C-alpha cells in the first residue's frame, strides 16, 4: 500500500485563498483550497469530468477488482467514487487501482445506503422517529458510522428527511413522518451522529441528506410520481428538515427523482443553487439520485446531452450511475452549453469532500481489517440496538391490560411473521446479514424463560395472491410461502390457539411491502391475515396483535375487535428480543406515532397540522351539511400524531404560562405538571403545540414546537417547562419572509396532538 500523505502538506503551507463561490475561508479551508488548486492545475478536462462520475459497481468481487470494467475507468481517471460495495477487502482492492494505477492517484469516495444501521440494524427510520429520543437517534447513527467506516465506507446516503403525509407511499418507512419540526430535530441528530465532530476521524462518515426535495409528496403516493405544491408550503412544511441538515453541516445532498414547479429536481437551478446554496449557504456537494439525470429524458426535458448540461448548470456536482456527465459534458463545453468554470466548481466540490474525509492523507483510512473484525455487530452495539428498538414500538391499544404478558402458562405465537429472520431488519438494510437477525419466535423463547410454554404456527401466508407475496419478498426476504390449502394452515393455528392462555398474532406487512417502489393502494393488513386474525379473536382467548408495518395502516376493524395492538414496525437485527422485552414488560413501551393513522384510506392525506378551512367541522362532531367533512366517515384519525400508550398512565395538570404577553424580543415559559398515575415506571413524551390564531396567511390549527421525554416512577410528578421564544412563532409569509406576526396564540401541551391542555398569550 502506498501512502500519499506527504504531498498534501508540502503543497499547502502558508497559502490562503477564497473558494470560487467567494465564501470566506478558515485557515484549514485555505490549506485545503491551495491543495485542491494545485491538484486541479494538473488535471485534464476529462479527469475533472471523471470526478463527477459515480458509476454503479455491481461487478466487483473480492480479488477481481483489477480486472473489472470499472477498474478500466478508474485507471483512466473516469470515476469519482463507487457505492454499495461491501467489505474492506473489496474496497481496498478498488482503491488500490485508483491510487496505484491512475495518473493523478486521486482516491475514490465509497458510499453506501447505511440507512438505519450497518450490520447492527436499528429500526426503520419511521420506527426510530417514534422514539422521540434524539440521543438514541444520534447514537444509532454514530454506531452505524462506526460499523460502516470499519468496513471501508466513508459516505452514507442518509438521512432521508422527506416529509410524508401519504401512507400509500412505500418510502414513508424511510423518513421521520409528517412533522417539519420533529423531522428537523431528527435530521440534525443523524447528521451529528454520522459526521461526529471531525470528518477526518476514521470512524466518522460523510452524511448525505436526501431526497432534495419534496419526494414525499408524490401524487397518489405512487413512487417517483409528480409533485406540485405552493412555495409557501415548501418553505413552511417540506423544506425545514433539509435545511436543518444543511445547518447541521451535512457534507452532501442528494437530488430527488420528482419534478418541482415543472422542472425535475436534478435540473432545477432554483432549487439546487438559489435555495440550497444562496439562501441556505450549503457548501458541500450535490449528487443525483440513481440515474436521475437520464430520467429527465423521460420527464420530457430533452436528450442526454441536454439534460446533463442542464443538471450541471443547475448546480449538481456528481452523477449517480447514469454517466450523462461522463459522456456528454465535453461536447457541451465545446458547444458552449456549459462553461469550464461550471465543471471546475463541481470537480472542486468533490475533491473538497475527499479532502475533508482525509482521503488524500490516507486513501485507506477506512480500510482497517482489524476494525472490520472487531467493531462490527458487537455485543455492545447489539445491546444498544435492542434497547432503542424497544423504545420505537407504539402501543396502540391495551384493553383489560392484556399486556404485559405473564411469565407463566402457554402462549400461541401465530402468523407469517412469527418465525422469520429475514424480514426483521426492514427495508434498506443493505449491509445486514439476515441470518444474524433474531426472529420473534427466537426472541420470545429466550426472553420468556423456562416457565412459559410457547407453541407456534404460521396460520396464513402473507398474501392470498402468490404474485403479490413474491413482490413483497424481494431481496432475499422470502416469507417461505406455504403451499397447503388455506383452511389447513389456519386450522393448525386454531389448534394451538385452543391450547393456549394468550395468543400473540405476528401479522402485517413484510419488510419489502414498504420502501422504494413499494407503494400500496390498500393500506390494510392483507385480507388473508385479517381472516386469520378474526378467527383467532373468535376463539375468545385474549389476542395481542404484534403489528409489523413500514407505514401507517388503516386498522379500524382491529381497533374495534382486538384487545391489544403493539405496533413494532421493522425493528432491526435485534427485533425478536426487543419485541419480547416489551411484551413481557421488561421494558415499558414509550413510542409515540410520528404519522397520523387514518380510519380508512379515503381520508388521505390526513395530518394533524392541517389548515382550518373556512368551513371547519366543530371538533368532536361528525357530519354537518355544508361543513368540510365526509358523509361516511368522521374527520378524526384512528390514532392521532403523537399518540402512544404505556403500561402506566400519565395525567397532566393545566398549562401555566409565565405571562400572557410576549414582546418581540422576549420569551415566556409554559409549564405543566405530569404525574405517573399508574403502578409502573414509564417514559412519557410531553409535547408542546402552538396555534397562531390570525396571520397574514392562513396558519395550521396546531404545530409541534417542542417536546421532552421524561421518565417517571409510579406516583412521581414532574413539572415540565418549555421556553417559547419569538423564533418559535415565525413562519414564511406570502413573500417568503420568515416572520412572527403580533397577535393571539394558543399553547397546547399533552401526551399526543389531540388530548391536550390549553392556554393562550398575545405577541405584542
Ligand atoms: C434511492 C436512493 C439511494 C440510491 C442509491 C436510489 O434508488 O432512491 O435513496 O440512496 O438508490 O442506492
- Broad structural category: alpha/beta
Work out the radius of gyration. 27 Å
Please report the distance between the alpha carbons of the first and last residues. 67 Å
Bound molecules: beta-D-glucopyranose
Largest sheet, described in full? 6 strands, parallel
Structure explained in plain terms:
With 764 residues, the protein is an alpha/beta fold. It is built from 23 helices and 27 strands. The strands form seven sheets. Strands 2-3-4-5-6-9 form a six-stranded parallel β-sheet. It has a six-stranded mixed β-sheet with strand order 11-16-15-14-12-13, sandwiched between helices. Strand 2, helix 5 and strand 3 form a beta-alpha-beta unit. The longest helix has 17 residues. It starts with a helix and ends with a strand. The N terminus is likely disordered. Beta-D-glucopyranose (BGC) binds next to loops. Beta-D-glucopyranose binds next to loops.
Amino acid at each position: 500500500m502506498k501512502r500519499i500523505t506527504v504531498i498534501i502538506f508540502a503543497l499547502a503551507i502558508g497559502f490562503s485563498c477564497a473558494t470560487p463561490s467567494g465564501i470566506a475561508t478558515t485557515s484549514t479551508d485555505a490549506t485545503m483550497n491551495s491543495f485542491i488548486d494545485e491538484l486541479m492545475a494538473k488535471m485534464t478536462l476529462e479527469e475533472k469530468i471523471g470526478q463527477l462520475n459515480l458509476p454503479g459497481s455491481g461487478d466487483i468481487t473480492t480479488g477481481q477488482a483489477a480486472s473489472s470494467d470499472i477498474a478500466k475507468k478508474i485507471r483512466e481517471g473516469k470515476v469519482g467514487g463507487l457505492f454499495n460495495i461491501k467489505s474492506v477487502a473489496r474496497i481496498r482492492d478498488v482503491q488500490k487501482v485508483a491510487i496505484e494505477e491512475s495518473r493523478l492517484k486521486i482516491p475514490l469516495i465509497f458510499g453506501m445506503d447505511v440507512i438505519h444501521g450497518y450490520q447492527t440494524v436499528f429500526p426503520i427510520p419511521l420506527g426510530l422517529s417514534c422514539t422521540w429520543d434524539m440521543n438514541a437517534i444520534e447514537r444509532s447513527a454514530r454506531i452505524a458510522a462506526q460499523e460502516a467506516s470499519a468496513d471501508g465506507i466513508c459516505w452514507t446516503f442518509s438521512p432521508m428527511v422527506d416529509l410524508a403525509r401519504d401512507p400509500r407511499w412505500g418510502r414513508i418507512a424511510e423518513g421521520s413522518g409528517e412533522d417539519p419540526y420533529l423531522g428537523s430535530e431528527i435530521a440534525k441528530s443523524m447528521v451529528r451522529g454520522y459526521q461526529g465532530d471531525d470528518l477526518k476521524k476514521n470512524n466518522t462518515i460523510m452524511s448525505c441528506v436526501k431526497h432534495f426535495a419534496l419526494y414525499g409528496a408524490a401524487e397518489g403516493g405512487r413512487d417517483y410520481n409528480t409533485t406540485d405544491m405552493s412555495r409557501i408550503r415548501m418553505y413552511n412544511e417540506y423544506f425545514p428538515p433539509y435545511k436543518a441538515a444543511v445547518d447541521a453541516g451535512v457534507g452532501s445532498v442528494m437530488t430527488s427523482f420528482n419534478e418541482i414547479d415543472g422542472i425535475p429536481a436534478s435540473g432545477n437551478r432554483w432549487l439546487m443553487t438559489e435555495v440550497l446554496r444562496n439562501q441556505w449557504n450549503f457548501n458541500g456537494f450535490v449528487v443525483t439520485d440513481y440515474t436521475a439525470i437520464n430520467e429527465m429524458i423521460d420527464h420530457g426535458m430533452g436528450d442526454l446531452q441536454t439534460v446533463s448540461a442542464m443538471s450541471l448548470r443547475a448546480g449538481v456536482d456528481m452523477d449517480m450511475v447514469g454517466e450523462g456527465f461522463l459522456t456528454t459534458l465535453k461536447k457541451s463545453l465545446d458547444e458552449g452549453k456549459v462553461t469550464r468554470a461550471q465543471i471546475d466548481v463541481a470537480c472542486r466540490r468533490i475533491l473538497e469532500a475527499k479532502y475533508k474525509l482525509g482521503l488524500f492523507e490516507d486513501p485507506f483510512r477506512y480500510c482497517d481489517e482489524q476494525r472490520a473484525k472487531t467493531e462490527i455487530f458487537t455485543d455492545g452495539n447489539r445491546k444498544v440496538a435492542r434497547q432503542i428498538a424497544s423504545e420505537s414500538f407504539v402501543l396502540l391499544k391495551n384493553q383489560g391490560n392484556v399486556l404485559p404478558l405473564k411469565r407463566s402458562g402457554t402462549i400461541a405465537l401465530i402468523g407469517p411473521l412469527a418465525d422469520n429472520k429475514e424480514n426483521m431488519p426492514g427495508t434498506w438494510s443493505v449491509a445486514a446479514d439476515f441470518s444474524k437477525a433474531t426472529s420473534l419466535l427466537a426472541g420470545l423463547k429466550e426472553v420468556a424463560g423456562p416457565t412459559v410454554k410457547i407453541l407456534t404456527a404460521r396460520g396464513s401466508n402473507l398474501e392470498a395472491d402468490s404474485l403479490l407475496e413474491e413482490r413483497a419478498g424481494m431481496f432475499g426476504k422470502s416469507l417461505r410461502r406455504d403451499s397447503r390449502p388455506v383452511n389447513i394452515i389456519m386450522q393448525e393455528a386454531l389448534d394451538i390457539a385452543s391450547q393456549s392462555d394468550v395468543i400473540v398474532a405476528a401479522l402485517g406487512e413484510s419488510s419489502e411491502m414498504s420502501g422504494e417502489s413499494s407503494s400500496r393502494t390498500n393500506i390494510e393488513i392483507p385480507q388473508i391475515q385479517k381472516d386469520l386474525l378474526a378467527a383467532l379473536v373468535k376463539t375468545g382467548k385474549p389476542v395481542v396483535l404484534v403489528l409489523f408495518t413500514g407505514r401507517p395502516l388503516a386498522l379500524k376493524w382491529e381497533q374495534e375487535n382486538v384487545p391489544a395492538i403493539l405496533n413494532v414496525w421493522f425493528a432491526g437485527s435485534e427485533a425478536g428480543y426487543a419485541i419480547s422485552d416489551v411484551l413481557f414488560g421488561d421494558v415499558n413501551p414509550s413510542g409515540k406515532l410520528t404519522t397520523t393513522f387514518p380510519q380508512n384510506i379515503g381520508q388521505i392525506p390526513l395530518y394533524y397540522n392541517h389548515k382550518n378551512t373556512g368551513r371547519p367541522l366543530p371538533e368532536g362532531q361528525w357530519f354537518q351539511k355544508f361543513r368540510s367533512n365526509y358523509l361516511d366517515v368522521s374527520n378524526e384519525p384512528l390514532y392521532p400524531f403523537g399518540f402512544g400508550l404505556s403500561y402506566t398512565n400519565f395525567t397532566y395538570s393545566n398549562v401555566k404560562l409565565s405571562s400572557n404577553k410576549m414582546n418581540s424580543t422576549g420569551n415566556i415559559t409554559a409549564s405543566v405538571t405530569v404525574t405517573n398515575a399508574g403502578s409502573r415506571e414509564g417514559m412519557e413524551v410531553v409535547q408542546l403545540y402552538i396555534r397562531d390564531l390570525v396571520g397574514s396567511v392562513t396558519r395550521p390549527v396546531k404545530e409541534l414546537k417542542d417536546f421532552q421525554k421524561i421518565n417517571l416512577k409510579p406516583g412521581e410528578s414532574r413539572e415540565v417547562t418549555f421556553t417559547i421564544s419569538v423564533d418559535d412563532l415565525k413562519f414564511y409569509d406570502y413573500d417568503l419572509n420568515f416572520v412572527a406576526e403580533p397577535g393571539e396564540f394558543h399553547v397546547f401541551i399533552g401526551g399526543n396532538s389531540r388530548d391536550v391542555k390549553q392556554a393562550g398569550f398575545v405577541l405584542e
